[in-house]
TrEMBL record:
Species the sequence originates in: Paenibacillus chondroitinus
Signal peptide: none
Residue intervals of the Methyltransferase type domain: 74-171
Name this protein carries in UniProt: Class I SAM-dependent methyltransferase
Record carries keyword Transferase: yes
Matching InterPro entries: Methyltransf_11 (IPR013216), SAM-dependent_MTases_sf (IPR029063)
GO molecular function, one term: methyltransferase activity
Length: 264
């Protein structure tokens, strides 16, 4: 819990991990995280893809996208490509994805080609200008990828620029309260300060990733600043079909959040 010692406990995915404080140096963080996703990413953290928004929250229940037929879609951090495939199968007219990792982009390309779907892919950090068309998309969305950004406000402004007026932005990420609390001996224990948004690195399966955990108000205020109106926020957990410690934790607090916002 001592923020100044450099060493701390964080939650990454569903697990408690040791972490060390690091400076927010954008190029170092991009190098670390693209290497992580190029090599270990999906093996260690797995793919999180539609219809799942993350643990215990699904599109099938909440219907945030609704009918996407004929709609132009862009995924930020498209990873394995499964969410693009899901929306392509539902007759979206255009599928676009960006990701920082060449290997993830290649996985998406292979999956969509095998599914007979056409996709436009760009390998780039989401924070950077990367040649995506502006005022173009009906939906921009991101399933467990937005939190990797080194610049939340800048990324949300870019997302707004890609959307048509009244276009929809949907994204999911780990709920910040989940990132602070672990289940120990059937008790929920705070391991980290909710307000601590500083950057940290963790080693998982001999690979390193760098992250920061933002508060909910940071997300809400960054959306407002980028010109979005929030239409819905989801932090419920549907745990009825699940057992185990993670589900036990998710019965008590949200582990995933989802925002649906509209460009004004
Ligand atoms: C948890 S995965 C996304 C899961 C994805 N929905 C799937 O189905 O695989 C996070 C993705 O974000 C990408 N990523 C990490 N940092 C990024 C950044 N700064 N800009 C763009 N993509 C990034 C990773 O390469 C990875 O593919």
């Amino acid at each position: 819990m001592d923020k100044n010692s450099g060493f701390r406990t964080n939650v990454v995915g569903g697990s408690q991990v040791g972490a060390i404080a690091v400076d927010m140096d954008k190029s170092v963080i991009h190098k670390t995280n693209s290497l992580f996703w190029d090599t270990k990413g999906n093996d260690v953290l797995g793919a999180t893809a539609l219809p799942k928004y993350g643990a215990f929250v699904s599109e099938e229940k909440y219907q945030l996208f609704g009918d996407v037929s004929g709609k132009k879609m862009l995924e930020i951090g498209c990873g394995s490509g499964q969410s693009l495939q899901y929306l392509g199968d539902r007759k979206a007219s255009e599928l676009w994805g960006i990701d920082i990792s060449e290997n993830q982009i290649e996985k998406t390309r292979e999956l969509l080609t095998a599914s007979g779907l056409s996709v436009k892919l760009i390998c780039s950090p989401m924070e950077e200008k990367c040649g995506l068309p502006e005022d173009y998309f009906d939906f921009v969305y991101s399933i467990y990828a937005i939190g990797w950004t080194t610049d939340l406000e800048g990324t949300f402004c870019r997302v707004a620029s890609y959307l048509k007026k009244d276009g929809v932005f949907i994204f999911s990420w780990s709920h910040p309260i989940h990132k602070c609390v672990v289940l120990e001996n059937n008790m929920l224990v705070f391991k980290k300060c909710y307000f601590d948004e500083s950057w940290y690195s963790s080693s998982i399966s001999e690979s390193t990733l760098s992250l920061s955990d933002r508060t909910l108000s940071t997300y809400v205020n960054a959306l407002a600043k980028a010109g979005f109106a929030i239409e819905q926020m989801i932090e419920e957990s549907d745990t009825q079909d699940y057992d185990g410690d993670f589900a036990k934790k998710a019965k008590m607090l949200p582990v995933t959040f989802v925002f649906k916002a509209r460009k004004l």
